[in-house]
Design brief:
The protein has 117 residues and is mostly helical. Helices cover 73% and strands 10% of the residues.
Length: 117
């Protein structure tokens, strides 16, 4: 593996803490080797499962934030659209009332006189 010394120490610290890896030094070559516990962790995919858990936890957290925000946005949109429709209907009602009054005035003006005896 070609990683920096810092990355190596971060990786090693976790593996060493869990007794899954240790350093070796043979004839001037240094590196890490997996202990029996490390081999077991590898075969059981311990870190793959931990990584998947982290991923799904983050996904769950984002989902718990996004869903309420989207719901609120949808609610605001629905209320706004309903208000627009109500205003439009009120305008239509006002226009109809105005036309009815105009027709009543015309009707009164054209009403024939009643003959009295």
């Amino acid at each position: 593996m070609k990683i920096s010394d810092r990355e190596l120490m971060l990786l090693y610290s976790k593996l060493h803490q869990d007794s899954e890896a240790d350093f070796y030094s043979v004839s001037g070559n240094e590196g890490l080797y997996a202990t029996d516990k490390g081999v077991t962790s590898f075969s059981e995919k311990k870190y793959v499962l931990e990584n998947e858990k982290i991923f799904f936890d983050r996904l769950k957290n984002w989902t718990q934030i996004i869903i309420p925000v989207l719901s609120l946005s949808a609610t605001i949109l629905v209320i706004t659209l309903a208000e627009i429709r109500i205003n439009k209907k009120q305008e239509d009602v006002n226009e109809l009332n105005k036309r009815v009054k105009e027709l009543e005035i015309r009707l009164k003006l054209h009403k024939p006189a009643i003959n009295k005896k």
